[in-house]
Amino acid sequence: MHTILVVDDDPTVAEVVTAYLERAGFVVDRAADGPEALRLAEAREPSLVVLDLMLPGMDGLDVCRRLRERSPVPVIMLTARGDEDDRILGLEIGADDYVTKPFSPRELVLRVESVLRRGRGEQTPSPGPALRLAGITLDRAARSAEKHGRRLSLTLREFELLAHLMRNPGVAISREQLMHDVWGWEFGDLSTVTVHVRRLRGKIEDDPARPRLIRTVWGVGYRFDAPAEADADAQAPTGAEGR
Q: What's the pTM?
């Protein structure tokens, strides 16, 4: 049974979220501030953390950053509607998803279930053989990734995004399609995809500012290039490629 850690200093929000998650079959721990959240996360190792951005003392960004230093536990951030910069920063730090306040508790439960399904690899009948391209080995059964024998520390969404791109080498995939295939959303903020691609490039590219594996296809989205393709494109303009 999955344990969800809910971190919110508003007792009403925390109670409503807890009630809906428990009704969906989850065990729920609650914390009202950052230090308490970190203590509970270390003691109980939750399956997922629902984390409010605005917390007293230590804010949600700091909590997310410290959680990421310890483990790849999935994090869904709760943000205010106007906090776009902080929301993007949260995704940069390592949040897997976010829900904007005011939100439907039912929507939040669906997001939690979607993230956990991805973690269990339930979107496909079988993980299949390991993927090997451009010096990267991705083992979906073991949930592990390496580049030239060096372990890559990927979050859940980064892992699934890389797997999807590697399964479709040389194919330009739109941000909308990536949001549908990787996040399971029919609609949403496409900056979520952009931020995750940028974060993923920082972990797999030799030079993230001049990416040669995950290429931007202007007006479309992104394409994963195998080495031969990357070499052939080496003379192509790359000044704005990293956006």
A: 0.66
